[in-house]
C-alpha cells in the first residue's frame, strides 16, 4: 500500500511543492512547526533513511541542502534546522525547519496558515531553489 508521500509524488494527493527533480520532491509540511517547514523526500518509497542506498542518501542530502539554502533566503530565521524522525509516515523524509528558537523543533507545536499563505510561501521558496 502506498504511503501518503507516494500519493503526493503520484499526484493523487495535493501538496505545496517547492522543489522537484527526477528523484526527489520537497514540499511544505501542512502542520508546520514554523512558517516555511519543508519536507524533502525521495520519490522512491523507502521506509527508513538508513535503508537508502549510499548514493541515493548522498543525493538526498545534496537536494536537501539546496532546498535549505533557498529556504534561508526566503524565510527570516536564525538558521534552518534539520531533523529525520519518520514515526508518522513510513517514507524517508527530512524536515527542514526555520529556527529562531529551540521551540521551533517541538513537533507538538504547529503554526496555522491559510491555503493562500501556503501557496505564496511555496512559490517564494521555489523561486530561490537552484537545482
Automatic annotation (TrEMBL):
One of its GO terms (molecular function) is catalytic activity. Coiled coil: none annotated. Residues 4-107 form the HIT domain. InterPro entries: Histidine_triad_HIT, HIT-like, HIT-like_sf. The active site is at residue 93. Pfam families: HIT. GO terms for biological process: nucleotide metabolic process. It comes from the Bacteria. A motif (Histidine triad motif) lies at residues 91-95. This is HIT family protein. It comes from Christiangramia aestuarii.
Amino acid at each position: 500500500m502506498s504511503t501518503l508521500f507516494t500519493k503526493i509524488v503520484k499526484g493523487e494527493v495535493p501538496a505545496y511543492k517547492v522543489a522537484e527533480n527526477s528523484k526527489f520532491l520537497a514540499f511544505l509540511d501542512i502542520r508546520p512547526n514554523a512558517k516555511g517547514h519543508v519536507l524533502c523526500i525521495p520519490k522512491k518509497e523507502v521506509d527508513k533513511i538508513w535503508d537508502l542506498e549510499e548514493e541515493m542518501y548522498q543525493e538526498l542530502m545534496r537536494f536537501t541542502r539546496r532546498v535549505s539554502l533557498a529556504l534561508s533566503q526566503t524565510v527570516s530565521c536564525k538558521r534552518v534546522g534539520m531533523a529525520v524522525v519518520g514515526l508518522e509516515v513510513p517514507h524517508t523524509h527530512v524536515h527542514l525547519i526555520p529556527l529562531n528558537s529551540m521551540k521551533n523543533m517541538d513537533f507538538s507545536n504547529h503554526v496555522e496558515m491559510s491555503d493562500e499563505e501556503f501557496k505564496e510561501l511555496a512559490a517564494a521558496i521555489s523561486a530561490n531553489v537552484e537545482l
